[in-house]
Amino acid sequence: MRKSTLFLPLFSLMMLSGEDWAEAQQKTANYDESKIVPYELPKLLVTREGTEINSAEDWTNVRRPEVLALFQEHVFGRTPGNWGKVSFETKEVKKDALGGKATRKLIHISLPEHPNWAGMDVMIYQPNNVSGPVPCFVGPSFGGNHAVSTEPDVPLSTRWMRPSKEKGIVDNRATEASRGNESSRWPLEMILGQGFAVATYYYGDVEPDHADGWKEGLRAALSKDGANTEWKNGDWGAIGAWSWGLSRIADYLETDPDIDAQKLAVIGHSRLGKTSLWTGAQDPRFSVVISNNSGEGGAAIMRRNFGETTAIITKSFPHWFTKTYSSYANNEAACPIDKHMLIALQAPRPVYIASAVEDQWADPKGEFLSGLNAEPVYALFGKKGYGVKEQPAIDHPLGDSIAYHIRTGKHDVTSYDWEQYLRFAKRHFGK
Ligand code: GTR
Q1: Regarding the domain with residue range 57-82+125-143+189-429, which homologous superfamily does it belong to in the CATH classification?
Q2: Residue whose CA is closest, atom 10 of ligand 1?
Q3: Would you kindly state where each structural domain of the chain is located, as residue ranges?
Q4: Spacing, Cα 223 to ligand 1 middle (Å)
Q5: How far is CA 337 from CA 12, 295, 306, 396, in A?
Q6: Which residues have a catalytic role annotated?
């Protein structure tokens, strides 16, 4: 009797999925600023050999490649370069979408040399009342194109989805009840109404988001041993793969005369906000970069043990990162990067970091601080950051080439967030 009561809770704890385990940690994590152990950030403007960087040119040619390599080696892994030809197939162009306000396109992207990967379905909405090529927000979705749009004729994704009763996911598959479940995060009419297009894909098209997901995704298809691969230190993780998907959308958009490919803004929320930052770091074609509540592994300073930590994230979601990253669990000081360097990798392009006050798990102050500490790199390009040293009041957006807000409410993407991103993108795209 005693034995089984002891055994059961232990067993159920062992059976928790990474998602559930992470959620359980939210209750016991540290949210007390005074308990943060003092730390020193790695120096942004000193090379590994100790040379000081004083010019934009030296940042671009010497230190930036070094910092990018550090993120590959220690955090996200290296994106392999062996995918070969990329093919685009236009599945649909619907000129009277959203009641005539938009054209909706569905483009299937695949790799003819890697047929084991089923490819990705990109959905684009562009405004009808605008002449000439338009700027475009590019971002992945958690639930598929049918979840972003409320239009009933968007094909339902048939791919694996994370379990969610309220999102209508049954046996890890979307159902009719899943339609539109992410539409509040993608206010299409508002975005298109301001002259922007939106291009999105389901992140699970590139890799299902669970520990073994890579076996059915792009990573196995590109590796020479397929699903028998052993991921070594420095090999890419799922965030790298999802980010690769965003770059393939940019490949397509460069061929689409309706889109101004000089004006692409990459955007992502939460784990997909980590993905958008890594995309901006690797792919300069994204000329504006937006991180919405990206938290640990994204914009938040990893040396602050506040909310989610390196130890927690690498235990619950080891597949997101390269293997090496987990060696910094409770050992952050040994890591040669911190997240101000991920923000600096976006320079001189404008970057927007957003937090939410009820999203303490993502460490809003840590998200703010990464932008603040990236400012010296922007300064080398004559670009301004926040213009303040302290986190602003709630719902008081600020900043120039590095911008920030902390809004009322919880972990989410809201119209308030989009209002700021639209204003920011317009300012920087000169609209
Ligand atoms: C949480 C995870 C966060 C964040 C979030 C999300 O469980 O701990 O790092 O990525 O998921 O993506 O919604």
Answers
A1: Alpha/Beta hydrolase fold, catalytic domain (3.40.50.1820)
A2: 271
A3: 57-82+125-143+189-429
A4: 27
A5: 36, 16, 18, 29
A6: 270, 411
